[in-house]
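User: Can you predict the 3D structure for this chain?
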Amino acid sequence: MATGQVLFQRFYCKKSLAKFDVKIVAASCVWLASKLEENPKKARQVIIVFHRMECRRENLPLEHLDMYAKKFSELKVELSRTERHILKEMGFVCHVEHPHKFISNYLATLETPPELRQEAWNLANDSLRTTLCVRFRSEVVACGVVYAAARRFQVPLPENPPWWKAFDADKSSIDEVCRVLAHLYSLPKAQYISVCKDGKPFTFSSRSGNSQGQSATKDLLPGAGEAVDTKCTAGSANNDLKDGMVTTPHEKATDSKKSGTESNSQPIVGDSSYERSKVGDRERESDREKERGRERDRGRSHRGRDSDRDSDRERDKLKDRSHHRSRDRLKDSGGHSDKSRHHSSRDRDYRDSSKDRRRHH
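Assistant: Here is the predicted structure, written as structure tokens:
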């Protein structure tokens, strides 16, 4: 707990509360502190605890947390992402030294009564709600809580020589620690104020979304000096009157947008319509898988047909080539026969002419 609070204070010394949600950062600091103190916890356990605390804080029914919901997976991713931001800002230097380990030694050295030890321990725990852990060293904070506890129980401490010099502290720092603690106890009970733009609550119920929407609409209501458009018909006036409040068209548009986004982003666990939608989504996924399998089979059949067509085309080409080759051969053989016939007729004429010449001679 103490390590997580110190990490929390260190992180917000560098980062803005408007950019990083306090609840997510607190959960991430607890998760990281469990690892640093060699008592690691799972992210699921941290989310369950913070979800239960959030339901109690907002007076919501304690519902079972669905591990397979989309909101749970988003919170888990956001938890690990915020942890990376914390480690990056600290440069992975997460060593924490608490004032608690000095309190017992200091009180034993000063020989104070035992009830003073518990009071100083409680003050050291409460000091973690302030910025003392990042402003002063652990020894100075321990001396401050010991001094405050001694003043409360009216226990005298040695001042000649001053006791705080033996513990490496100065009087001005001790006075500042006591002043900060006194101011802390003078404050009223802390109330959560949402200042983060992208805040994601840990609750899964729809009441938290409705309460946030109502608070947002209250902020959008016009002030006393602002003008309100009162030009509307009787029917629209009757529709706009809800619970004694008149809403402007701008407010109705913003309310409808917010209700639409909230209904899409925050499913209600245990609702029958939500379960039906989940079953329908599963059936759609199965149908999509079947369609993909059919498309694959069709692709394979088309590929087989294309390969058959290509083989048929190759065969036709081979046949045409063989046919053309046979035609060429026939032509060549026909030309040779004609030439031979021509040569044979010439030989015959030459023989006949030679015979006639002999007869004449």
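The CA atoms of residues 14 and 314 lie 74 Å apart. The chain has 13 helices and two strands.
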